[in-house]
Write a structure and sequence with these properties.
CATH class of chain B: Mainly Alpha
CATH architecture of chain B: Up-down Bundle
Largest interface: B-C, 90 and 94 residues
Helix content of chain B: 55-70%
Number of helices of chain B: 20
CATH architecture of chain A: Up-down Bundle
Oligomer: heterotrimer
Order of helices and strands of chain B: HHHHHHHHHHHHHHHHHEHHEH
CATH topology of chain B: Cytochrome C Oxidase, Chain A
Distance between the termini of chain A: 57 Å
Chains: A mainly alpha (207), B mainly alpha (622), C alpha+beta (353)
CATH superfamily of chain A: Cytochrome c oxidase, subunit III, four-helix bundle
Distance between the termini of chain B: 16 Å
Structural class of chain A: mainly alpha
Number of domains of chain B: 1
Number of domains of chain A: 1
Strand order of the largest sheet of chain B: 1-2
Chain lengths: 207, 622, 353
């Protein structure tokens, strides 16, 4: 396939993200990468579960967490996952404008999530004096949730960069796999959050 | 691009070429040179250890320095010598064995190498900045979290950076093997070296993140005051052991499996027989990989997990002996009825069988959880894992290098010198490590700076030290062989061994696009199949046409350099927060390079049909 | 389970193996010369596994040697192409099933021994001794539960009965290994207590090592276990309980030494008493087998140790030059005459070569 075919395809295939060998490689490689990420988060969850009783005082999961805020955050992130699905749907429809729009909405929701998370951390630190250094539970909590937050931040930067870079030239076979892997990444972040919500917050509050 | 051409372009151009290369064959050379360099450093450390233990109450090196020595010897040999040398072989061979023009992610391949390289350099810089890490290669908390100075910080940052490189390389080979195979190269026609690379890559993918997390926790504890391993704040030191061994045990198989693959190819080639029980061998490889994840806690029998956990992990560990046994017998029966040709590569492979069998046997003995109460952390364990890692991995690397040297450099390593290097190394290896099993049972614990007089350990330790010198002599002869071969030996053709697999169907060294036309694979041992049909080479699967190749890039180097700089920043910001500038600069370089990579299109280039035809006329591709 | 594993040993291969192996190592240190219940059990387990493994090795080597001799390429046969065999299902089954059976044979005694050694059923029973062991950089402390006494570096146990050890560490990981009597167990900082038991068959001074890397002086963190008959052990307990830390030494230098010791050393060390200090308890120091776990008990060595502990055990916490050398000599005089109990002095120690 010549460069021109890749950048200005005469006809967009149904799966533009997998139309080139590079795209196929990227698609498969990214799935493997997410497999590794799964082990990464599994290790963090394991560490958290081993240490969530080591609170060294009053700052226990039960006393700290408020489910209302976390519920809103969960809804925001779940919705952003859905909007990124819409974006990919429009990619397959070859409707570049709508795809970009849905991605902008995804980024906005992700930003809101991140804002709430920063607020949550700020709240714990200033209201409860509960920090990364106060107990093994504190270290494990901020590390697990913070790693997720870091992933959200990275995802936001990535998707934003893609939106801006390709705004003028539209979809082609070169950038379609990039969009697609970014959306996969975003789904993964969302799934991890569901586990954090369950293991850290629900089980901390109820269990 | 041949070396002769490169030389004409001058040294600076050659260096630039290697800094920016994304060609798997050149990256293989980079892995080979740096892995070889670290192997020599690790070997030197081993010699100093053995000199210190030559006699009782010795004072050759101080206690603190000794602990740095053993830590760096283990860490260097595992992460900076064995791993890259294996990656050198994988990069040099796997794309050729499956009939591909490059790996799936040439850019990431280069990034993986440079991350490994800068991580290794960072780790070794610690020697010159006030002390290397000294808590053992296993780096158990809380000795590691409370170790004074910055040694352990270097360990954490160095391994984190090089570990990221390894993870990238693992993903790369997985995708390469799944997506880039030539037409007709089904999974069950892949050479064993490719198969084992595939399984190893999967192990890397699922094992390394556990180490990543462990290193992050260690980093946070040492640099940012978290309390994961601080029992005063409710931390738990056993978490490190679990994370380390969840990574560490699969790591053992990451090291040995590719060489199982190499041995399979070598036995088959030099017996002129197809590999006996090919599908059983594939199955055993996959099974070893799978079981490798189930047994990590056998490193922790004495931690106090209780008899139930100990028994489960004991039995699971014993189970690994079964697929390993299958492999040993299938290798023996590959040679059975063959025409065995004792080349240097074959000599190392043949020597591997008894050595590794002994290592496997002591492995089963160690798996008996209760008996491990005697073996654990003694010289018995040291003897065991050196039998596996030297007798398996190092013998395998030597065998693989002898076997694939012509493919990498176009010349066969001198056979006489090859055998001359083998014998002292082989004898020295058994002298050094066999006696160590007994030393352990006689009461010598591992990681002992001195042993005392009058405990009956003198003779054994002296023998062991003498053996180490023999191994050093063997290594030096091998190095001489490399130089001698480069100067004196003649060039050889594409298939000097009368071999069986695809890499031997193209010139040595191959042109940078590997295959002028992608070959059509018609069975296991594709080249052998064609030769038996009376053909000279492979049947092409496509007409001669333009070839798409990736562009080189300096960005992988820059990204890794950024991490290297940031690594120093992280280490020293504990002392002085102005070092955070280094963190920002370093991460800025890395993230900036990543952004550049993301924003700037890189579509690669084409090699046109006319150039290929010209190459063919010159004799390339025959 | 002792019974049937013991009988195995009378088998020819076993007795030969045991004979060869027992040539290795020093009395009271080698795992190959067991002097206690656990060590004997473990040696039996090792012998079973070695026997199975040698069986496998012999088979592998027989095929190996045959193949290499028989199928080497010979002159004049360069062009022969061997038959390209794909494999053999029956053979594959054989070398899968036989190892499985062999491993099962090994797995049964392994699991039995693992549970046997983890048994704590009699701990806390009347008359069963439990010692609280603490590993420190680089010394061991032993607290005899229920008795108001403690020792450092040397653990006294009665022969012929189980003594439980409840073990932890005060700083970093250590591991308590007593090869001739039992195996080893790690000591961990924090809440985790690991328990193992010792049962010595004969009287003797047994050597132990730390087996978990714990810093520069890891290799110098030796300890002794002194096993004496139950009667002597009771005598020892009695002696230890009657230690008078204030007792006046006989010679004047020792008296001056006592004064110096009380002023300079007592903040970390203790004589008599049961609580663990920053440094080892020095009760009965005059009868110690070794100074600091490693040095011969001469006055010269002791003075060296008091003045320059860091040169002898790098990284240890005792400060150097806390007293002048002349003062150290007096302290040495004082310490070396602390002979609170003569029990165990005549216990058989390592044989000299």
């Amino acid at each position: 396939m010549s460069h021109d075919d890749v950048l200005n395809p005469k006809q967009m295939p149904h799966d533009p993200e997998k139309a080139t060998l590079e795209g196929k490689n990227k698609f498969l490689g990214f799935w493997f990468f997410l497999g590794g990420e799964t082990v990464l988060f599994a290790s963090l969850f394991g560490t958290y579960l081993a240490l969530n009783g080591s609170t060294q005082g009053e700052n226990t999961p039960e006393n700290l967490f408020g489910l209302e805020l976390v519920f809103i955050m969960t809804m925001l992130l779940l919705t952003s996952s859905l909007t990124s699905v819409y974006a990919m749907y429009h990619m397959k429809n070859h409707d570049f404008g709508k795809m970009q729009l849905w991605l902008v909405i995804t980024v906005a929701l992700g930003l809101a999530f991140l804002g709430f998370e920063i607020y949550e951390f700020y709240h714990y630190i200033h209201e409860y004096d509960f920090t990364f250094r106060s107990s093994a539970f504190g270290s494990a909590f901020y590390t697990l949730v913070g790693f997720h937050g870091g992933h959200v931040l990275f995802g936001l930067c990535w998707i934003t960069a893609l939106i801006i870079r390709n705004q003028k030239r539209g979809l082609n076979l070169y950038n379609a796999p990039k969009y697609y892997t970014a959306s996969l990444y975003w789904h993964f972040i969302d799934v991890v959050w569901v586990f954090i919500f369950t293991v850290v917050y629900l089980m901390g509050k109820v269990g | 691009m041949s070396t002769a051409v490169a030389q004409k372009r001058g040294l600076a151009a050659t260096i630039w070429d290697y800094l920016t290369t994304v060609d798997h064959k050149k990256i293989a050379l980079l892995y080979l040179y740096s892995g070889g360099f670290f192997f020599l450093i690790g070997g030197l450390e081993a010699m100093l250890i053995r000199i210190q233990l030559m006699k009782p109450d010795n004072n050759f090196i101080s206690a603190g320095l000794y602990n740095e020595m053993i830590t760096m010897h283990g860490t260097t040999m595992i992460f900076l010598a064995a791993m890259p040398l294996i990656f050198a072989l994988m990069n040099a061979v796997v794309p050729l064995q499956i009939g591909a023009r490059d790996v799936a992610f040439p850019f990431l391949n280069s990034l993986g190498f440079w991350l490994f390289f800068f991580g290794g350099i960072l780790l070794n810089v610690s020697w010159f900045t006030g002390g290397a890490p000294d808590a053992g290669w296993t780096n158990y908390a809380p000795l590691s979290t409370t170790s004074p100075g910055h040694g352990v910080d270097y360990y954490v940052m160095g391994l984190q950076i090089s570990g990221a490189g390894t993870l990238i390389a693992g993903i790369n080979f997985l995708v390469t093997i799944i997506n880039m195979r030539a037409p007709g190269m089904t999974y069950m026609r892949m050479p064993l070296f490719t198969w084992s690379t595939f399984v190893t890559s999967a192990l890397i993918l699922f094992a390394f993140p556990a180490l990543t997390v462990g290193l992050f926790l260690m980093m946070f504890d040492r640099m940012f005051g978290s309390a994961f391993f601080d029992v005063a704040l409710g931390g738990n030191v056993i978490i490190w052991e679990h994370l380390f061994w969840i990574f560490g045990h699969p790591e053992v198989y990451i090291l040995i499996l590719p060489l199982f693959g190499a041995f399979s190819d070598i036995f088959s080639t030099f017996s002129r027989k197809r590999l006996f029980g090919y599908s059983a061998m594939v199955f055993a490889t996959v099974l070893i990989g799978f079981l490798g994840f189930m047994v990590w806690a056998h490193h922790m029998f004495t931690v106090g997990m209780g008899p139930i956990a100990n028994s489960i992990f004991a039995v699971a560990t014993m189970a690994i002996a079964v697929p390993t046994g299958i492999k040993i017998f299938n290798w023996l029966f590959t040679m059975w009825g063959g025409q065995i040709k004792m080349t240097s590569a074959m000599l190392w492979s043949v020597a591997f069988i008894p050595s590794f069998t002994i290592g496997g046997m002591t492995g089963v003995m160690l798996a008996a959880a209760a008996a491990d109460f005697q073996y654990h952390d003694t010289y018995f364990v040291v003897g065991h894992f050196h039998y596996v890692i030297v007798g398996g991995v190092v013998f395998g690397i030597f065998a693989g290098l002898h076997y694939w040297w012509p493919k990498m450099f176009g010349k066969v390593l001198n056979e006489k010198l090859g055998k001359l290097a083998f014998w002292p190394f082989f004898i020295g290896f058994h002298l050094t490590f066999f006696i160590q099993h007994f030393l352990g049972l006689m009461g010598m614990p591992r990681r002992y700076w001195v042993f005392l007089e009058g405990q009956g350990l003198e003779t054994g330790n002296l023998i062991s030290t003498i053996g180490a010198f023999f191994m050093a002599i063997g290594t030096v002869i091998f190095l001489i062989n490399i130089v001698y071969t480069a100067i004196k030996e003649p060039k050889v053709g594409g298939d000097p061994w009368d071999a069986r697999t695809l890499e031997w169907s193209i010139p040595s060294p191959p042109p940078h696009y590997n295959f002028v036309q992608t070959p059509l694979v018609r069975g296991l041992d594709p080249l052998w199949v064609e030769k038996m049909d009376g053909k000279k080479g492979m049947t092409p699967a496509e007409p001669l046409g333009d070839i798409h190749m990736p562009n080189g890039s300096i960005l992988p180097f820059m990204m890794s350099l950024g991490m290297f700089i940031a690594g120093f920043g992280f280490i020293y910001q504990v002392d002085n927060s102005s070092w955070l500038i280094a963190v920002f600069i370093g991460m800025g370089i890395t993230l900036g390079s990543m952004l550049t990579r993301s924003l700037k299109d890189d579509l690669g280039h084409h090699i046109h049909k006319e150039e290929l035809e010209a190459d063919i006329k010159k004799g390339v591709g025959k | 389970m002792r019974g049937w594993m013991g009988k195995f040993r009378s088998l020819f291969l076993f007795s030969t193996l045991a004979l060869i192996l027992s040539g290795c190592g020093e009395e009271n240190l080698s795992a190959l010369k067991p002097k206690g219940y656990s060590a004997e059990l473990l040696l039996d387990l090792m012998l079973i596994s070695i026997a199975i493994m040698i069986f496998v090795f012999v088979i592998v080597m027989a095929i190996y040697v045959y193949v290499l001799v028989r199928y080497r390429k010979k002159k004049g046969q360069e062009d022969i192409i061997p038959k390209q065999t794909e494999g053999n299902k029956a053979l594959e089954v054989i070398w899968t099933v036989i190892p499985i059976i062999l491993l099962l044979v090994l797995a049964v005694p392994t699991v039995q021994a693992t549970f046997d050694l983890a048994d704590q059923s009699t701990q806390g029973d009347e008359g069963v001794l439990t010692v609280e062991v603490t590993g420190n950089q680089y010394w061991w402390h032993f607290n005899y539960r229920g008795e108001e006494i403690a020792t450092s570096q040397e653990l006294y146990i009665p022969t012929g009965e189980r003594v439980y050890l409840d073990m932890k560490a005060s700083d970093v990981l250590h591991s308590f290994w007593l090869p001739a009597i039992a195996g080893k167990m790690d000591t961990l900082p924090g809440e985790n207590i690991n328990t193992m038991y010792l049962e010595a068959y004969e009287e003797g001074v047994y050597w132990g090592h730390c087996t978990e890397l714990c810093g520069p002086s890891h290799s110098l963190m030796d300890f002794r276990v002194i096993a004496v008959s139950p009667e002597k052990y009771d005598q020892w307990l009695e002696d230890m309980k009657n230690v008078d830390p204030e007792a006046q030494p006989e010679t004047t230098t020792a008296q001056e030494g006592q004064e110096l010791f009380n002023n300079n050393c007592m903040s970390c060390h203790a004589i008599g008493g049961a609580s663990m200090g920053v440094g080892p308890n020095l009760t009965n120091f005059g009868n110690r087998e070794k100074i600091a776990g490693i040095l011969d008990p001469t006055k010269e060595n002791l003075v060296d140790w008091i003045v320059h502990p860091d040169e002898i055990k790098p990284g240890n916490k005792m400060p150097a030059n806390i007293v002048e050398p002349e003062e150290a000599e007096k302290i040495a005089d004082y310490l070396l005459q602390l002979e609170h109990s003569s029990v165990g002095v005549d216990a058989p120690t390592q044989t000299e070569e």
